[in-house]
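Recap from last week: sequence in, structure out.
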Amino acid sequence: MADALRVPEELSARVPAEQRGPGLGRDAVRLLVSRGADEAGHHAFGELPRLLTAGDVLVVNTSRTLPAAVDGRVGDGRGRGEPVVVHFSTRGDRWHPAGRTVAGCWAVELRSPDGRGSTRPRAGGPQGAVVRLPGGARLALEAPVAPGGVRLWWGRVTGGTAAEVMRRYGRPIRYGYTDRDQPLSAYQTVFAVDSPGVGSAEMPSAARPFTAGLVARLVSAGVQFAPISLHTGVASAEAFEPPYAERFVVPAATAWLVNAARARRRAGPRASGGGRIIAVGTTAVRALESATGADGRVRAATGWTDLVVTPQRGVRAVDGLLTGLHEPTASHLLMLGAVAARDVLERAYAAAVERRCLWHEFGDLHLVLPG
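Predicted structure tokens:
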């Protein structure tokens, strides 16, 4: 399927929607809508309230984006050495390879500056290497996150904390298809809440186009919101790696709301609509499905999840998905394939390319609904 979903480079969104013209807001993006065998529909994102039905539930990720990119040097301890950019991905705690809680332990990715404000891939390590960080802090690399892995390493910060280093010297992770650095505020969604010591290395981007005004219109239309949090680590478009374990929380109130909506939908006439559980972003799918049993009931849950949602496993709680248009990595396609059939996705992506929709975190969105 990946070959069928290749995206022309010129369709990458270079800047946020609100910077593409005067008077535009975050919600000035397009919305591709797929409904089973129907041809993909084309809408403005602001039309979302009329595309949903009273009683539908939008599951949203409240994780806050971290200023996770920090400049450093791997060197000889005298200020020289190789310049690198450290991407702080996930705070480790119990997922440290020794199985113990270690203060300051993070999964990190080292990248090489590309001279244009972005980065290019670099192998991690070696074990024992020390990265000099701004403000006198140090990052010591201890072991690969995955046995035999080369990209992500466990590292421990000394001479300060990772949170302090990011707060004082960090910036949002930026990729080469964007034109310039953006302030951290450009990477926060309207749903983001502070959670000390944790957050997402990359923005839960499907929620970015939502504004307070649009949320109010959706609530007025009877659409409900169910918060979860999943603190996502760095993606790997180059390595095609599956997701690794990430922190998540599904509150009891969210579990109750989802279960109640699904029960009403099963009990009522199909023509009445409503009661659909629509995840805003693949992170919301992963968190909610991690809290859903084989019986289809969602239960309050907190901890870590290494769940990979595949077409073979399917989804148990989610009926639809609102997601960005992303370069098709293996894990992203697997999750989309659990929500919609392959031919639906191929038609939708072909329509998106034909209509010159924009890709990536500042781009247009795709709403996948049941047929």
